[in-house]
Amino acid sequence: GQQVMQIPQYQHVQEGEDFTTYCNSSTTLSNIQWYKQRPGGHPVFLIQLVKSGEVKKQKRLTFQFGEAKKNSSLHITATQTTDVGTYFCARSNFGNEKLTFGTGTRLTIIP
Amino acid sequence: DGGITQSPKYLFRKEGQNVTLSCEQNLNHDAMYWYRQDPGQGLRLIYYSQIVNDFQKGDIAEGYSVSREKKESFPLTVTSAQKNPTAFYLCASSMKGGQRQETQYFGPGTRLLVL
User: Fold this and answer.
1) How high does pLDDT run on average in chain B?
2) What 8-state DSSP symbol labels residue B9?
3) Inter-chain contact A42–B43, Cβ cutoff 8 Å?
4) pLDDT at B35 over 70
5) Least crowded by CB within 10 Å, which of A5, A88, A101, B10?
């Protein structure tokens, strides 16, 4: 399947610092979804981006879709301990219902 | 409550045995999916189904089998042909399995350990 590269693999931040994870594709994406998986839990849908250059916000979380629709980012402002977990991006192909997940970025917070 | 249930939460299997993982949803979703997650890794698609009595192989289907006899149910069998079955298995469903990608809702998962 078509790869989705996600960086960094791990991120340790001091509580209150910002955090960003990036998702990159070599081919154009029809849309990108973001999921969060708490330790020991299951992935939970956060958001879907569809339009070129789209920016969406959910409280302290900001999601961006690149102008060329080949990359996306998730930025968390002023992290809290509740933000701990692994963040995955997931792509689907045009006309294809399958999702391909990125490798995820595991966020840990230092209190 | 609407949602996806998976059972059991933990499952132990002896080498050479087949084992079936249950996945049930009452969300009236058309599409269902099975993923495998290894420690510290992402999710890899095993099988998916867009409609009853139809399913397709994902990226790592070897050693697994599925059935979709009812809309609500999508059981996964891990066969003895699967050489490294120890993993966290996640079932998901979505409203449509058609052209537009819908949100996937995940069950709590089953942790399979081969003894």
Assistant:
1) 91
2) S
3) no
4) yes
5) B10
Cβ contacts of B77-82, under 8 Å, gap ≥ 24: B77/B18, B77/B19, B77/B20, B77/B21, B78/B13, B78/B18, B78/B19, B78/B20, B78/B21, B78/B112, B79/B18, B80/B15, B80/B16, B80/B17, B80/B18
Looking at residue A58, the DSSP 8-state letter turns out to be: E
pLDDT at residue A48 tops 60? yes
- Nearest-CA distance B11 → chain A (Å): 15
Interface test with B, best of A38, A89, A96, A97 (most B CBs within 10 A): A97
Of B43, B101, B103, the CB nearest to A101: B43
* Interface check B96 vs A, CB under 8 A: yes
Tens of pLDDT, residues A59-89: 999 999 999 999 999 999 999 999 999 999 9
